[in-house]
Design brief:
Layout lengths: L24 H8 L16 E3 L2 E7 L5 E7 L9 E4 L1 E2 L4 E6 L7 E8 L2 E2 L18 E2 L27 E4 L1 H5 L29 H8 L3 E4 L3 E3 L18 E7 L10 H17 L3 E6 L11 H5 L28 H17 L4 E4 L7 H14 L4 E4 L26 E4 L1 H8 L18 H8 L27 E3 L9 H8 L5 H17 L3 E5 L19 H4 L5 H4 L1 H16 L8 H7 E3 L7 E6 L10 E7 L5 E5 L4 E6 L2 E2 L5 E3 L2 E5 L3 E7 L2
Parallel strand pairs: 10-11, 10-19, 11-14, 14-15, 15-16, 16-17, 17-18, 18-19
Antiparallel strand pairs: 1-2, 2-6, 3-4, 3-7, 5-6, 7-8, 7-9, 12-13, 20-21, 21-22, 22-28, 23-27, 24-25, 24-26, 24-28
This protein binds calcium ion.
Amino acid sequence: MKKHLKKVCPAALTVAGAFVCATPHAQADNMESRYLTWPAYSGNDLELTVDNQGTHFTLWSPMAQKAQVLIYNQDRNSAPTDTLVMTPSDSGTWRVSVPRQLYGRFYTFRIMNNGKWLDETPGVWAKAVGTNGQRAAIIPLSDTDPEGWETDHGPALDNITDAVIYEMHHRDFSIHPSSGIVNKGKFLALTENGTHNSSGDKTGIDHLKELGITHVHILPSFDYNSVDEANLPSNAYNWGYDPVNYNVPEGSYSTNPSDPAVRINEMKRMIKSLHDQGIGVIMDVVYNHTAENDGSNFSLTAPGYYYRHRPDGSYSDASACGNETASEREQMRQFIVNSVKYWAQEYHIDGFRFDLMAIHDTETMNQVAAALKEINPSIFVYGEGWTAADSPLPVESRALKENVAKMPRIAVFSDDIRDAIKGHYSKADDRGFVTGKPGNEETIKIGIVASTAHPQVDYTKGNNSKFAYAAAPTQIINYVSCHDDLTLTDKLRKSMPETSEKELQRIARLAQTIVFTSQGTPFMFAGEEIFRDKKGVHNSYCSPDSVNAIDWSLKNSNAGQFEFYRNLIALRKAHPAFRMTATEDIARNIVFDKTDRPNLISYSIKNHANGDDWCEIKLIFNGSDTAIPVKIRKGDWIIVAQDGNLNPDGLGHTKGGNMTVAPYSALILARDK
Ligand code: CA
């Protein structure tokens, strides 16, 4: 009954801003208004607390006719040892207490709705579960803390634009035999130091450190549905965009899913290990829908409330996965806010990436950001500023990229720069700026200025967006590829079929040079630094390891590519000019040169921008197959990038004058006086 397997994963759709048409809301509002009368409960003791007086259960279920707690000795395949009858309490809750600490036991809730007992559920606030998350567990959470956890913290960050985000999946990163990692596909893979491929190149966490990224964004790590934790030898793969228990780590990434403490402890050990290397951890969160409809933990505790519906009462489906949640309702909004707070506090998470964020409303996202910043000012939040299908939520309320100015502390992915660089995300053979297709120049410029207002950028010529939607560069995540769609390698191979691998690698360098020198925050897909592919598969959400695994022998065969990426990241980190935080600074310091050729962009970052040592950085991108002559102002220039090579310390010097930008390459020059 893995119905999600028949469905397209929401993250696979990437239909940026495609569904902004308005629907008739009045009718739907009448249907949904009944939920507005349900009392919300704001206490922080929902579902389970244990103290010296005993074990206390509090379930929010305003319309239940009866409610029970079932107590078990085992995580599955056993009868309950006790059934506790709950009594109605304040604000739609039901409560029951036991005067003993029930550590080591499991529990579920069961409610009567419209005269029928619904299926058992671990509730929506389970913080520990057994196999497949079917029963919640009662354990002392402090026992799951690894040594040194009380002093553990992620990297301090002044601004999101100082981050370099590396998006990875646990299994992709470690499962290949060439990884040299023992705990393949597990949280613990990222606790292993000193791992390497057969050529001696660093892998695992040492590789991340060597590359220089600041944060790993890990694909869903909460408890999801699609991998059977009772049958892990089957080696099932899934991205994990099918949530079950939002506040518990996924069991298949642990070494023992049946022991509730193990997955929690091992995820914390992974986070501590990354923190010890100065690397932050970003959670990929999917509050926009659940794997099941009537069978979800939301539906089994408060039927109907947590979801939006169509006028006929059916589930509306902006996620294209069968349902969509209703963040505008108070208890759902509180759930999202409290859930991210829990991950930030209990697991020391440093950032959150919201899947299909535009299914949520802007008010909820603002509350999320405010709550997280209060816990730790270095935490940042970004998301997909689109939905996968239409929603009853009014367009003006959606956390769309077009509405990001209403969410000052939230960032959105720039599909503008993504598609302009490489071509359309789903049309495999379509080309972009770096692969010789004209007409993308203005959209690349939109990317360079992070979708902020700039006097020399004409948004009416933008391919995707037609206005400067970002209020500040801190609101933009720049990227050219991610887990969705073709990898950059596959995209280049399919759109440039006659081109040699060496040439394609050169084009990939140009693509990422544009991303990493643009204003905003750069984001890259794991393994592109060694030119990994996914065998040409677009939507690899449940493809086998043979498609998704990163082959670490590529680090040896593509050593030059890795070196380029390492230098590119070092360049960005060394120069604040690439990391401006204010729209006015970008408008003042970035000056585009007039060019009349397609696939050519030339601009300068001037005035020691953002306190940079360099007074001027000249960047010229040539996405055509011919060398282009350019005239550079006379001066003492350091050559930072030329002809497919890059070095932050300089490749050499030039006095300017007549120069050439080689095909498919960037020329970057800098001067300090
Ligand atoms: Ca699971």
